[in-house]
Amino acid sequence: MDNNNKFLDRLNQASRPIVTDGAMGTLLHEHGIEIDACFDELNLTHPAFVAEIHRDYIQAGAQLIKTNTFGANRTKLDRHGLEERVQEINAAAVSLAKKVVSASFKDVLIAGDVGPLGVPLAPFGRVQVEEAYEIYIEQIQALVQSGVDLILIETMVDVYAVRAAIDAAHHVDPALPVIASMTFTRDRRTLLGDTPQEVAQRMHEMGADVIGVNCSGGPAHLLHILRQMKAAVPEGRFSVMPNAGFPENVGGRIMYPAGPEYFHDYTLAFWRSGANVIGGCCGTTPAHIAVMAEAVAQAPGDFLVNLVPDLESAAEADQEAAVGRSDLAEKLADGKFVIAVEMDPPRGLSIHKRLAGASLLADAGADVIDVADSPMARMRMSPWAVCHLIQSQFAIETTLHFPTRGRNLLRVQGDLLAAHAMNIRNVFVVMGDPTEIGDYPDASDSYDLVPTGLIRLIKEGFNVGVDHSGGKIGQPTNFFVGAALNLCPSKPEREIHILRKKLEAGADFFLTQPVFDVHKARSFLKIYEDQYGPLDAPVLMGVLPLVTDRHARFIHNEVPGILIPESIQKRMDSAGENSSLEGARIALELIEEARQDFQGIYFMPAFNRFDMIADIIDRVRNG
Hints:
single chain; alpha/beta; TIM Barrel; 2 domains; eight-stranded parallel beta sheet; eight-stranded parallel barrel; 24 helices; 14% strand
C-alpha cells in the first residue's frame, strides 16, 4: 500500500472515526516551557519532551498524531531568529514522531501540522497570497520529504490563507491527503465573517480531502458548527477537534474547564453528525483522548442506527444555549442567583482603579459588572472602553448601560454594532439622565427612541440581522437586553403599564432601583401577578449598601423614588463609627430576604467602595 494513501484508505475502509491526538502546546507549557517560547524549536533542543507527549497520546488510543510544527513556518520562526531553520525543525519533528510510532508497535498515522502564518493576508494585511503560498510550500515540502502520511492545515482564520496552504500542499505532492480545518468565534463566524456553511463549501471546492473545525471553543460549540458544515457539503468528510471548553483566566493562568469525561457523549455526537476524524485542541490532554478513543471503540456496531435520540437533542440544546449567548443569560436561564455590580467610568484617562476594582469583584464571585454611561449627566470615559478592558483582562462579563437620551438613530445603531464587535453581549437600556442636571446643561438632550423603542430595535431588528430601516446588517447580533424597573413606585399602576410595554418590546431581564423594603417590593410583584400572572423575566433587585448615617439621610431625602424605612435610618444613626459595618449587615439582611423572590441582586456601590461590596459578596457566596 502506498504510504501517501494510508490515511484515505483507512477512512474509506473504517466503520468508525479515526481518533487523533490533542494539544501539544498545553502539555509543553506544563513541562515548564514559557508560553512565549518557540515550541517548534523544542524538536531540536528538548526532543524528549515532544517524544513523551507523542507517546502518551498513542498510549491513550490516538490513531493519528500531529507533528510539533504548528508554528514551524518562516514567518513565525522569524520572531525567534529561526527563519533559516525551517527545513531542519520540520524534519526533526517528523523524525521524532516516526521514532515514537515505531517504538509503539502500532499502526499510527503521522500528520504534518501546518498552522497559520500569524500575519493577515491581503487585502487585510501586507502579506500577499502569493507570498503565503511560497511560505507554505517551504514548510510542507520539508514535511513531505520527511515522510508524513498527510498534511493537516489547522486553526486557520482566513479562507484566503486556507487556499494558499491547500494549493501549496497539492503542488508539493498532488496525491498527499489534506485536512483543512478552520477556527470560529463564539458567534460561529470566522474572524473575517464567514459562516460554517460558506467555509465548508469553499474548502470542498479547493480540494480538501477532509473539511475540519478545530480550536474555537468546547465540544458543544463545535458540534453545531460541524452540523452546519455537514449540511452544506453532505458528501464531504469532516474532522472536529474542540478545545477543553472556552479558556478562562484564573489567577493569571489560562485554564480550560472541560474535563475528560465531558468529552465522552460529545465524541458519539460528533460521530453521529458526520465526523470522520475526531480529536482535541487547546487544553485537551491524553486523558481526554483516552475517553474519546474508548467511546469510539466501545460503541456497538449499530451505533449510527440506534443512537439514543436524547444524546443528540441534549447536545443540540446545550449548543443553542451556549453559542453567542452571554454568561449572564445562561446563568439566569439555569436559575442561578446572580450578582451584578455597577461601576462608573473614570472622569479622566486613568482606568487603573476601575480595573483593580473589577479584579477584586471577580475574585469575590461577582457574575457581571455593569458599567454606567455618563451617570448624573456628568462627563466620563465611554463605558464601551471600560467594558472592553474589563472583559479582556479578567474572567468576568460586563453589561453596557445604553441610554437613549442624546443619541439619534444613526448613533444608536452604530454604537450597538461597536459594542457587539467588542464582545459586549449584555446591554441595559435606559432613558438616561437629563443634561440639565449635569456638567453641560446646554448640551443637546434630544433622542429618537425611548427605551421601549430601543429594546424593540435590538430584539426585532439587530438580533435578527436588520437595522431600523429594514436593511440587512449581515450577521445578526445576540444582545441580552435589560431594562429598568422600580419595585417601590408611588404609582404602581403606572409602573406596571411601563413594565408591560418593556416586556412586549422584548426585554430579557430587569435591574431595579435600590430596595430598602423587600416587603413593599414583593407587594408590587403581587399586584402585577394578580393582573397578568407571574412576571416571566428575571429581576435583579437593587442593593445600595449604606456607608454613613449622612449617606442614608441623603438617599432618603434627596434621591427621587428611594425611601429608606425609619427603622434602617435609626440603625445607621446608632451605629456611629461602625456605620459602614452596619450598612453591610443591612444589605446582607435585604439580600437574604430577596432570595425568595428575585433571581439576583444588583449592587450600586457608594463612593466606589468596591472593597465593601467584595466583602458582602464573599459572605453571600460562602454563607
